[in-house]
């Protein structure tokens, strides 16, 4: 059934038991992102420590895809150097924009590979990227604040 | 509700809509419950547009050759059909790109009144003047008024919405007062399904000399509507929500008002006399139709009006009323489902929005889609209304003359399936 392809168990697990959820202090920058077509939103904070992503915390409301994707994001980037986190982000964006034609690399994306099925539904790609856009923006703001 | 002699024969109607025969998502029969966003088109409408293009296509209102004559006649005949359909005169109907453009036309023309002659006095707005809308408006009947208020210094105010999803008219005499210049409101909410008391609002506006602007996008396609009887000054609706093409909408304006209203878009076709330094303008409706208009779309909209007339708008309304009643009853029986809007099919149209506890609207919509059921999810271009109703997003099923009771049953069963899938049943 198509539905199971999209809603992999991994996604539903992250949705029901999100990792790293809740806004925390201290943080360097915060980003608020909205999906204007559905009203879903996420507020995401980033704490950097010498070029490493020390913490990502977030709150928001939205569909299972947007919430699970943000949960996976925290697993992938916290504790990683910013440039490595951005490489993972690029890989995730490429996967999501690939219309189901991109073969994901589990070594890079870990649980993120579960979103391969979502990429076949163009209307849901924005959902999956909402938290990632907030992460990108928050890192840019915190780096901008230090520069 | 009055009962027509013979009810609508839905299978006969469906046979006219080729798209309803297709399957989606691996062979599922299409259940199209998104007519509030856009309706499907019958063969008669598609054929009319093609026939016009194959036999009479030309730029209207220019040229003296035979095709130009025939194209102009077809375009103007469509205007007459539309006018008759909503109970007004031929010269009171302006074709626009869509309903959104119709609202903007009125709002921008009012903004242009400051620089126009004394005949436009009643359209002028400035600091101290007030524009009144409602909290249940589609963005298309809200944002243009916000912008007009910002451009002119006027104040935007609004009627609230009750928990049940009705307009709160308790403060009507305070809200609509001697400072009010415009009262803009929807006839039927695209989210709640609520049918508003047009007469009460028109009377309130008339007492203080304010203009009324009616968003009729969700009413004109679904039942008999007579703008003259309703007494509104302006009204808009779209072609693509009433079996017609996209790319054509309709603005109605009372004749005396259109005659005094300054233009919005300017250029070819809308002029009377042009000199290098200045111009004078054509009488309405041409004054508001600058450039070569959407011709085949208008002609096809005329065919859509013919189609709806042949079915009978009373029959359409009665059919949708039945579907709405059954849908409301079916959804009410599912624990965890909250209908956002009136739960009784009284003064209520066939847009049924709801939330399912524990499942986001997107996810409900995805499960329904996997079953072949097309609904809308999100805020349906009515974000402030969703905030008011404490819903981040809703699922909306909207019915039309081609929907069946089986399809309503499929919707209800699909919602139960979503609850099973996400483990909240």
TrEMBL record, chain A:
GO biological process, one term: iron-sulfur cluster assembly
Organism of provenance: Saccharothrix coeruleofusca
Name of the featured protein: Iron-sulfur cluster assembly scaffold protein NifU
SUPFAM superfamilies, alphabetized: SufE/NifU (SSF82649)
Molecular function GO terms recorded: iron ion binding; iron-sulfur cluster binding
This protein's encoding gene: nifU
Segments traversing the membrane: none
InterPro entries: NIF_FeS_clus_asmbl_NifU_N
Top-level taxonomic group: Bacteria
Residue span(s) of domain NIF system FeS cluster assembly NifU N-terminal: 6-127
From TrEMBL, chain B:
CDD domains xref list: SufS_like (cd06453)
Cofactor(s) demanded: pyridoxal 5'-phosphate
Enzyme class: transferase
Any GO BP annotation: cysteine metabolic process
Domain Aminotransferase class V, first and last residues per copy: 31-411
Record family assignment: Belongs to the class-V pyridoxal-phosphate-dependent aminotransferase family. Csd subfamily.
Protein name, entry field: Cysteine desulfurase
Organism: Saccharothrix coeruleofusca
Taxonomic lineage from the root: Bacteria, Bacillati, Actinomycetota, Actinomycetes, Pseudonocardiales
């Amino acid at each position: 059934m198509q539905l199971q392809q999209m809603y992999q168990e991994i996604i539903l697990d992250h949705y029901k038991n999100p990792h790293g959820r809740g806004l925390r202090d201290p943080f360097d920058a915060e980003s608020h992102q909205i999906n204007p077509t559905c009203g879903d939103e996420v507020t995401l904070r980033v704490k950097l420590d010498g070029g490493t992503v020390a913490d990502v915390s977030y709150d928001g409301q939205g569909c299972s895809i947007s919430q699970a994707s943000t949960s996976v994001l925290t697993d992938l980037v916290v504790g990683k150097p910013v440039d490595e986190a951005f490489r993972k982000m690029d890989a995730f964006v490429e996967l999501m924009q690939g219309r189901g034609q991109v073969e994901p690399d589990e070594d890079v994306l870990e649980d993120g590979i579960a979103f391969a099925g979502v990429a076949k539904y163009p209307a849901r790609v924005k959902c999956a990227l909402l938290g990632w856009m907030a992460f990108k923006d928050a890192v840019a703001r915190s780096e901008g604040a230090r520069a | 509700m009055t009962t027509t002699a013979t009810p609508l024969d839905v299978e006969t109607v469906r046979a006219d809509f080729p798209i309803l025969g297709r399957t989606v998502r691996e062979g599922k029969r299409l259940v199209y419950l998104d007519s509030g966003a856009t309706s499907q088109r019958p063969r008669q409408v598609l054929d009319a547009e093609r026939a016009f293009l194959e036999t009479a296509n030309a730029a209207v209102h220019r040229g003296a050759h035979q095709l130009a004559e025939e194209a102009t006649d077809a375009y103007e005949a469509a205007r007459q059909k539309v006018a008759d359909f909503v109970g007004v005169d031929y010269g009171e109907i302006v074709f626009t790109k869509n309903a959104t453009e119709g609202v903007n036309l009125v709002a921008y023309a009012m903004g242009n009144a400051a620089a126009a002659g004394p005949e436009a006095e009643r359209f002028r707005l400035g600091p101290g003047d007030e524009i009144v809308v409602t909290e249940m408006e589609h963005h298309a009947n809200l944002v243009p008024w916000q912008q007009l208020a910002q451009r002119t210094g006027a104040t935007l105010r609004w009627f609230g919405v009750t928990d049940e999803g009705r307009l709160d008219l308790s403060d009507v005499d305070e809200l609509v007062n001697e400072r009010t210049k415009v009262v803009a409101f929807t006839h039927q909410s695209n989210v709640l399904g609520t049918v508003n008391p047009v007469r009460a609002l028109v009377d309130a506006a008339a007492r203080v000399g304010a203009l009324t602007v009616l968003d009729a996008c969700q009413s004109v396609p679904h039942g008999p509507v007579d703008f003259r009887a309703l007494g509104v000054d302006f009204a808009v609706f779209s072609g693509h929500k009433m079996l017609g093409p996209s790319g054509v909408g309709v603005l109605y304006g009372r004749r005396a008002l259109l005659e005094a209203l300054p233009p919005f878009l300017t250029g070819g076709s809308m002029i009377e006399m042009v000199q290098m330094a200045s111009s004078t303008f054509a009488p309405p409706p041409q004054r508001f139709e600058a450039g070569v208009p959407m011709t085949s779309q208008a002609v096809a909209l005329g065919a859509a009006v013919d189609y709806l007339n042949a079915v009978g708008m009373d029959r359409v309304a009665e059919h949708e009323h039945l579907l709405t009643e059954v849908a409301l009853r079916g959804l009410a029986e599912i624990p965890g489902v909250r209908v956002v809007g009136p739960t009784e099919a009284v003064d209520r149209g066939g847009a049924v929005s709801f939330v399912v506890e524990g499942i986001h609207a997107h996810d409900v919509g995805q499960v329904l889609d996997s079953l072949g059921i097309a609904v809308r999810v999100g805020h349906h271009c009515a974000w402030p209304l969703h905030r008011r109703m404490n819903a981040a997003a809703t699922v909306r099923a909207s019915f039309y003359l081609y929907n069946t009771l089986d399809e309503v049953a499929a919707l209800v069963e699909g919602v139960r399936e979503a609850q099973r899938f996400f483990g909240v049943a």
